[in-house]
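hey
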């Protein structure tokens, strides 16, 4: 798609993404040059902001719009003993540097211990900063999460962070548009996470390159905001520039009344504008993908990229049967790293740990659906469970509902908010060789700790896995119940039966 096509000739039907782009062009690029795009919201965290602040300082430039910035601490923060000094020197320096920078430049910040601290992609929406129709950037690839509100949101590099700090704009090349049409009713036990894992397995980890994905269709319309965020969050794992969902009543209800959301007449005007944003009838996408949601099942990854996944009811694939030589080699290498043998039923894979958290799945809905499954049940012997809310606020809300108690009675660890075991930048890590069912978004080699092995799953699969000890879904719990195995907390005999079945 050329720059000119974004010029929006009167009456041409446009997609959601094209409308947002058109409304944010400050200077139109000539002869294939990038357009200069206005940025409405700039989120920062400790990892990718230090050099950008240094750059500003060296150039003696102020922040252009400090009021459009907000900082939170998430990657390097511990999730235990948060009032103590951070032990790891690198993490400590990162956090201290952010604190110095936000103080010097006057940026609103939510440090560890603050009620609004948490993963940057949980904090923005929770404060009502993330809204339909705005452009959002952050030096973080999962900024795509915010697209769930009908915002154009994408991750940027550190030099771009500095550019936005100094000018509140970014030079950007136009993108192509891809519609991901998801129709039909999800079966119980199947979630937004399973849809997006299926999408990535379908189009591949490079399939979205150069595109902004728009998730559309009846299934998406019926998803709550938390599910839409889960899907947009992982758009980047398909290589996409961004992911989006058109704003609707569900979006407006979510944003309404939040701290930074417009109020009164401003709110009415905003909603009036937001209603104009959905893709026009007849607008043409560069590519369309169709997914039948009613056929989806709980999904799980077996490899070391998010596209290497299968239905949980299937077996570890045989690389020899993969035609494409590079995909075959990647699968061979992945199975070796994951210590898996082709043909093994995925459900027979035993895990050492379950991680419930990350910007993909650590919001209140996620925690609720997880807790509902483990409530009154007994954790599988030898499995370590960590439950990490996405923000301090989510933690408090979950505690008000007793979710912390449910997790602890089950035998899990209830932690403070942060990126935690999503990536090995803080004390929450897997030991070499440990296998984890994780609700996060990346299963790269060493992602959760050197030598750690990650299977990406939904919160429901994480819960069922924590109960059964092997990769499992709520469907397996139903089968167990039909066979008289309830996994109840006090039914020790039942738990033993399962342990034996697993070993057998
Ligand atoms: C540390 C940060 C730059 C990184 C990202 O950009 O995504 C991290 O959040 C991740 O998920 O790998
Ligand atoms: S939770 Fe994980 S994916 Fe999300 S921002 Fe933190 S490290 Fe990145």
């Amino acid at each position: 798609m050329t720059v000119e096509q974004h010029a929006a000739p009167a009456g041409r039907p446009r997609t959601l993404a094209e409308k947002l782009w058109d409304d944010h062009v400050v200077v139109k690029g000539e002869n294939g040059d990038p357009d200069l795009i206005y940025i409405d919201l700039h989120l920062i965290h400790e990892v990718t902001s230090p050099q950008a602040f240094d750059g500003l300082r060296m150039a003696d430039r102020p922040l252009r719009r400090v009021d459009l910035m907000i900082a939170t601490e998430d990657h390097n923060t511990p999730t235990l003993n948060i009032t103590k000094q951070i032990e790891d020197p690198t993490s400590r320096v990162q956090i201290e540097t952010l604190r110095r920078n936000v103080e010097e430049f006057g940026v609103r910040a939510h440090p560890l211990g603050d009620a609004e601290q948490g993963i940057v992609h949980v904090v923005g929406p929770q404060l009502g900063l993330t809204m339909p129709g705005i452009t959002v950037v952050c030096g973080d690839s999962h900024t795509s999460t915010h697209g769930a509100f009908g915002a154009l949101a994408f991750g940027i590099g550190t030099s771009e962070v500095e550019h936005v700090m100094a000018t509140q704009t970014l030079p950007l090349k136009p993108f192509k548009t891809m519609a991901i049409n998801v129709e039909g009713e999800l079966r119980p036990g199947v979630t937004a996470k399973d849809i997006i894992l299926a999408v990535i397995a379908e189009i591949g980890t490079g399939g979205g390159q150069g595109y902004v994905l728009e998730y559309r269709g009846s299934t998406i319309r019926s998803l709550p905001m938390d599910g839409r965020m889960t899907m947009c969050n992982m758009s980047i794992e398909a290589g996409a520039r961004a992911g989006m969902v058109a704003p609707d009543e569900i979006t407006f209800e979510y944003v309404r009344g939040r701290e930074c959301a417009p109020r009164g007449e401003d709110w009415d005007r905003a909603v009036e504008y937001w209603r104009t944003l959905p893709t026009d009838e007849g607008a043409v996408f560069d590519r369309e993908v169709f997914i039948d949601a009613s056929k989806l099942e709980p999904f799980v990854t077996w490899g070391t990229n998010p596209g290497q996944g299968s239905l949980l009811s299937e077996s570890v694939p045989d690389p020899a049967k993969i035609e494409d030589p590079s995909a075959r080699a990647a699968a061979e290498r992945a199975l070796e790293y994951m210590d898996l043998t082709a043909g093994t039923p995925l459900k027979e894979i035993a895990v050492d740990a379950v991680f419930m958290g990350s910007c993909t799945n650590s919001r209140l809905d996620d925690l609720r659906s997880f807790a509902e499954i483990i409530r009154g049940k007994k954790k599988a012997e030898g499995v370590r469970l960590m439950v990490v809310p996405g923000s301090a606020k989510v933690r408090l809300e979950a505690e008000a509902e007793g979710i912390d108690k449910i997790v602890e009675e089950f035998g899990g660890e209830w932690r403070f908010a942060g990126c935690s075991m999503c990536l090995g930048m803080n004390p929450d890590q897997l030991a070499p060789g440990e296998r984890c069912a994780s609700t996060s978004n990346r299963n790269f080699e060493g992602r959760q700790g050197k030598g750690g092995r990650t299977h990406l799953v939904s919160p429901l699969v994480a819960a069922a896995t924590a109960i059964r000890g092997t990769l499992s879904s709520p469907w397996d719990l139903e089968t167990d119940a039909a066979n008289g195995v309830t996994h109840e907390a006090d039914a020790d005999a039942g738990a033993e039966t399962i342990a034996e079945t697993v070993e057998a």
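The longest strand covers residues 176-183. The chain is about 35% helix and 15% strand.
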